[in-house]
Each structure stands twice: as structure tokens, then as C-alpha cells.
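Usage example:
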Amino acid sequence: MTDFLQLLFSGAATGSVYALAALGFTLLWQASGTINFAQGEFVMLPAFIMLAGLSAGLPLPLAFVATCGVAVVVLGWAFKRGIADPLFKFGMMPIVVATIGLSIAMRNGVRAGFSAEAHPFPGLFGERLFTLGGVTFTAADVGTLAVALVLVLGTQAFLQRTVTGRAMQAVAQNTESATVLGINVPRMIFYTFAINALLACATALLVTPVYLAKFDMGESLGTKAFFAAIIGGFNNSRGALLGGVIVGVAENLAAAYISPAYKDAVALVLFMVVILFKPQGLLGFKEVRKV
Amino acid sequence: MPSARRFALHQIAAVTLMLGLGAGAAHAQATIKIASLQELSGGGATAGTNFKNGMDLAIKEINAAGGILGKKIEVTHSDTQSNPGVAKSLAQKAVDDDAFVVFGPGFSGSMIVSMAETRRAQIPNFTGAEAASITAQGNPYVFRTSFSQATSMPKVARYITEGLKAKTVAVIYVNNDFGKGGRDMVIKALEGLGAKVVADISTDAGQVDFSAPVIKAKQSNADVIFVYTNEEESARALRELRKQGVNKPIMGETTLTGQKVIELAGDAAAGALGHVGLTVDAPGPRMLKFKADFYRAYNYIPDHNGIKGYTGVYLFKAGLEKAGKLDRAALTKALHGLKVSADKYPGALLDVTIDEKGDLDRESFLVEVRGGRQVVKEVLPPLGAAKK
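Running the assembly step on the lines above writes:
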């Protein structure tokens, strides 16, 4: 039983990280109809910017703040202006292809600059261990889970409780009406991209101590997050959290009780089951497509 | 004087011919071309980069001292991306480019497919790959720069059963050619010595979360946990083992206690045991000098792959000097059964014997990670000597 709880807990910690990346997927989709297949690399790049800051002598919190600034400009503004805006009018496919291309470019760019080796990254919460009812927790696991939860719920609250957040949702739901209501649509869309960039920085801060900073660290993360977003519901931010945790826990349980060899297939199987029986995702709602 | 003129013409023709031939021959043999295929990116990047740097250091030294048989070495490194398909095509390219010898790739899975190319072209192929199957196929052109698993695993098993007095062992291995080869060898050796393998746990290359494998190992309640994965995964496994409070001895091979693993795993690596064929912490002045030279050139301390690359080039030098001419067949013949003495070839660092299959035998070391570095606990004699 303690083993089961241990698996459940470490799965939830991993899953909460998937959830953060998945939240980025759902946000961009809701606000701008963009699917960003470079989401994993959006996490990898801030990790390396922080690493550069650290090696330049900045303490971790300062490096993180600086990275957030850079990320909002590069992964928020430049991504929107350079890729999402010009391609949006041609439909979703060109954006998908462009973001896949972007992910390849980012991976290889970082590889060229930082070598292909993994680099260690300082943990935010230290390595302290404590045991509760036979289950061992690390401060890092608890911290990751807590921070991820706070970020997902905070984003949710921001979208629902603040004027700006509601305006962003209005833009997502119906751009024309939002314009008529006097909402600055391009600015709201930019906010979404900026929030996505900030979430990516936070994810990087949480996962890199475990994943290690490496040019291809975003690859599996991006895929898992995409599955998590679909499983939870692409048009619901809370779905991302649920999807992420489900994927993380299911993977861990499958690895322990079925076979570690099938661990990576679990997310895919869940993904297919959800697509077949509840295509809008567990928490998603049906969308009527306007032609 | 027609005869004199004809004689002059003959002379000119002969000289022209000689010049032409001479120039051609000189062109072909001006340098010794080495094609090096390494994992410079992907899962094997740590190993490949070390190997490459080790080679470069040795080649620089040899060229500075006048080369081999008076010829300078010219090396081209290419990146296999840790991908067997890429490695195979790079091996083809090396053959097309008429490389005199090929070094690498270091990944067993890549080596197994790429060595078919060098074998067909009868080009000697040095490798840092350790899967037992590589030299078990009767390929006369393959030479190792490190132990085969068939040499190292019996040493590991002997230490687990005699040194650690373990009756039961949990094996965590990575599901690729390297990991599976090692798993098969170590399980065979352990069972041969009367130990029982109570958990046989496979993990993926590039796996991030090790909580499930570690829980399985814990559940088995084995006396010793044997971890056989590549470097990054080893670091993650060590972190998870420590996190879950495992207090049984953790034993591994070279990949568990490497410098990069220690750097990535931090404190979690403390206490991990490893059998290593090569370590910069081996006692002796030659290794100390190598470590210092390497650090001066690259600003970091190499792992065993750096030593493999470095000593591999010196084994090649010893073989070629024994052959006495720049001829692949003669080199191949000279390398089989070659005994290299470190007194004569300091670059070989340790006395080493190459057997008829291309496998190496030499001393090896049992290390423990203490205070962020490998500390040699015991020097294990060559397998050949232990048998006597």
C-alpha cells in the first residue's frame, strides 16, 4: 500500500509538471486557435537562459526573473509577431507545421550553443527527505506539486475573476463581439502569449533539476503535455491539470505493475481512448464549429 | 646522334613516370587518415565527446613527436547523433573516403550495424562499445579500447558475491543493446556464483522518472542493487534510489560512477560502487599525467571514455609500429595477440593485451564515490592473471 501511495505521489508530482505545460497548450488554443508544437522547447529555452544567467553569476531567483523578461519578449511577443500573426489567416495547419519547425530550430540552436550534453541545474527546494506513513517525500516533489497547483489555479482565477482575464476569455469565445464591446483584441491575445511564456519559465524552473538541462529535454515533455491537454479537454484550463496528473500517475502505475517498457505507451493509450469516447476531453465541452 | 637522343628521351620518360608515381604514392601516404564516428549528440553525447577529446589529445601528442612511422595522423570526427542508421552511413562514407582506420562509434547498437561496413572494406575498426556480441561475431577487424561485458561482468559478479557477500541481487538495466548485453552477462555470472537475481527491471533509454523501477527494486528486498544504464539515466536512478531511502549497496559498472554522473547526481551519488576498466583516479604517475594534460587541454576532468579515446590511439600506434608499414592487413595481424607495455608506450597508460578476438585484458578497478569523486578501493588483476 505504501508503495502504491509512493507511486501515486511521485506520479502526481511528475503529472503536475505535464499539467503546467498542458495549460500553455489550452491557453493558446482558447485565445488564438494556435496549437504550439514547440511547447516542450518553450520550456527548454528558459532553462538554458537561466543556466546562462547562473553561470554569469546571478543567483537563481534573479536569473529566473531575468529569464521571465526575456521569455515574454522572445517566446511571447516575437513568437506571436513572427509566427502566429502572419500565419493565422491561412488556418491552423501552417501554424502547426511552423511550430514543429520552430521546435527543431530551437533544439538545434541550443545544441550548437550549449553542446548536446546534459547540464546539472540547481534544485529550488533542496534535497530534504521526509517520511509520512511509510511514504518518502522529497521537498522537491512537494514543492513542485504545490507550485504547479498554485500556478494552474491562479491562472484559472485570473481568467475568471479579473477584468483582463474575462476580456481574454471573451476574445477567445467570440472575437467579433469582443471587438464590438471595445476590447483591445490584439493586446488580449498578446497577454495570452505572455502568460504562456511565463508558465513555460515556471515549468522550466520546476522540471530542469530532474530532467537536467539538455537540448532535447522538451521533446517528451511537449508530447506528454499535448496528450494531457487532449485528455483533460483542450478548451478547459482545469482539464489541463486533470489530464497532466492522470498521465503522470498512470505512467508510474503502469511502469510498476505492468512493465516499464510500456510506460511511454500509457499516455498514448489514454489519449486514444479519450479521443474515441469523449473527443472533447474529460472536462472539455462540445464546441459548435462556425463555418 | 640518334641513339643518344633516344636515350635522353627514355630518361625523360622514366623520370616523368617516376615523378608521377612518386607523387601519387606520396599523396596517398602523406598522412594516416583516421575516420572517427562518435556520439557527439543524443543519448551518447557525454561518452562521445569525451572519446573524441581523448583521441584529439593523443593525436596531437603523436603528431608533435613526429607521427607514426614518420607519417602524421589526420583525423575527421563525425557525429552519429547516437543513431545506428546515421552511424552506418557515416561508416560507409569513411570507407568511401578511404580512411586507413575507423574509430567508433561507441554505442553498441550503432557499432553492431556500422562494423559490417568496415569489415567488408577490411578496415580495422577501434571501438569503445562494450556489448559482448561485438567481438563474438568473428569480425577480425574489430578492436576494443575497453573491456567487453564478457570480461567486466564476471569481475562485477565476483565482487558482488565475494566482496559484498550478497545472496540476492536486483538488476536495473537500460533496454538497449548495451544494457541488455550487460544484463545477460551479469545474470549469467551471478547465477554461476550462486547468487539469485530476485528482480530483473528494464528501463528506457532517456527515462526521466525512476520511481517505479526503484520501488520494484525495493520490493524485491535484494542484498545488492545492480544498476546498468547510460550516464544520464544513472544519475536519475541514483537520485531516486537515495530519495526512496534505499540503504542497500548500489553497485554498477563504469557508467554508474563516471565523473559526469557524479556531477549530475550530486550528493545522491555518494556511496555508489562501480567496477571500472579505466579511471583517471587509478594510482600511478602515467594516469596522473594524462589527467593533468587532459585538464589543461579541455578544462575538465575526463571520464573513462576520454581514456578510451586516448589509449585507443596509442594502441593503434603500437600496432602499426609492430606491423612496420602502412598496410591494413599487416596492422590487423599485428594487433591480434599484441602485448602493449606501458613502459614502452606510456600513452597506453596500463599494460594491456589484445586477444585474437579483439578483446582487451588488463587491470581494472573497484571504485566508490566519496566526496564527489571516484575513489579506488581495490585494484583487480587482469582476468587472465586471475585465472592462473
